[in-house]
Amino acid sequence: MDWTDRHCRFFLRQLSRHALLYTEMVTTGALLNGDHERFLRHDEAEYPLALQLGGSVPADLAACARMAEDAGYDEVNLNVGCPSDRVQNNMIGACLMGHPALVADCVKAMLDAVDIPVTVKHRIGINGRDSYEELCDFVGQVRDAGCRSFTVHARIAILEGLSPKENREVPPLRYEVAAQLKRDFPELEIILNGGIKTLDECRLHLETFDGVMLGREAYHNPYLLAEVDAALFAGTGPQISRTEALAAMRPYIERHIRNGGQMHHITRHVLGLAQGFPGARRFRQLLSVDVHKTADPLALLDQAAELLRGR
Ligand SMILES: Cc1cc2nc3c(=O)[nH]c(=O)nc-3n(C[C@H](O)[C@H](O)[C@H](O)COP(=O)(O)O)c2cc1C
């Protein structure tokens, strides 16, 4: 949430044609009672794209899954991993790991409503329900409801006392638990998530798992995605350069500004493109600080592009 908005995804799609991109979590309440066109908005260039839903009322999730399918999304994913208090009060996210039968009902209702895949992202447990048997019970019940793809954030969530940020860092990563799950449910697609930072790590995990999902590293070091098509998807096209990726954003940014938007809505997501280079600080300064003080944002974009020249 707050990161993979449509501008971020449009940018990431310039780097990889094949990586599946996910929206931020959208709650069923927001979609059913709010401005659903705004929450579902995306560009066809972002495909393949999954909409992630937060909720636990089967009929509501079914209605939202239908909205996702109608809007063109390739997949709908149910969030059973978010530990935030705010969502727990509404029975959304990781707390649902304690209610496998309800999650199964949700998944069944969604599957009955759409033809696109319905997938689940979850933890390996929550405090008070963190045994391997309970994890298998959860996955087994959701599988029996028809789900075939599970993305496993390989740490438990602690639902009281830790902030969401701590819940992404404090409980230890236990890849071996996710690997055991793959062995015990070989027919399911099991995608590993949590702490993966390099393509070598991706390759290694792909010997065990059907897929890998990267969160923070893909955001902070987006150029990693430029290498995944060739490295992991056997893509054959030429790898885009950093300069080309930024240049590809220029018409998109121009259109956004013409429609009354501000450049920093978009450029806040490209700051990691210069990561590790001498001009990286200046690049970030131009696109995240100076951008608020200029009447000619596109000139700043061009200055920032100069810093990437040749890369
Ligand atoms: C700022 C922030 C927002 C996040 N929002 C979501 C979300 O909306 N839905 C979700 O499934 N995971 C969300 N996550 C969790 C990530 O998808 C991922 O599971 C977690 O960061 C572990 O993977 P990583 O080590 O590759 O980042 C968020 C993570 C961060 C840092």
Structure explained in plain terms:
The chain has 2 domains: 6-231, TIM Barrel, CATH 3.20.20; 242-308. It is globular. Helix 9 (199-205) links the parallel strand 6 and strand 7. Strands 1-2-3-4-5-6-7 form a 7-stranded parallel beta sheet. Helix 1 packs antiparallel against helix 12 (242-258). It has 311 residues and is an alpha/beta fold. The chain starts with 5 loop residues before the first helix and ends with a helix. It is 45% helix and 12% strand. Flavin mononucleotide (FMN) binds at residues 1-3, 24-25, 52, 79, 81-82, 121, 153, 168, 193-196, 214-217.
What is the CATH architecture descriptor of the largest domain? Alpha-Beta Barrel
Please give the CATH class of the largest domain.
Alpha Beta
What's the tally of helices? 15
The total strand number stands at 7
State the distance separating the first and last CA atoms. 30 Å
Q: What would you call the shape? A: globular
Gyration radius, in Å = 20 Å
Q: What's the name of the CATH homologous superfamily of the largest domain?
A: Aldolase class I
Ions, cofactors and other bound molecules: flavin mononucleotide
**In order across it, which strands form the biggest sheet?**
1-2-3-4-5-6-7
How is the CATH topology of the largest domain named? TIM Barrel
- How much of the residues is beta strand, in percent? 5-15%
Q: What structural category arises from helix and sheet content?
A: alpha/beta
Name the helix and strand elements from N-terminus to C-terminus, one letter apiece: HEHHEHEHHEHEHEHEHHHHHH
Mean of all residue-level pLDDT scores: 96
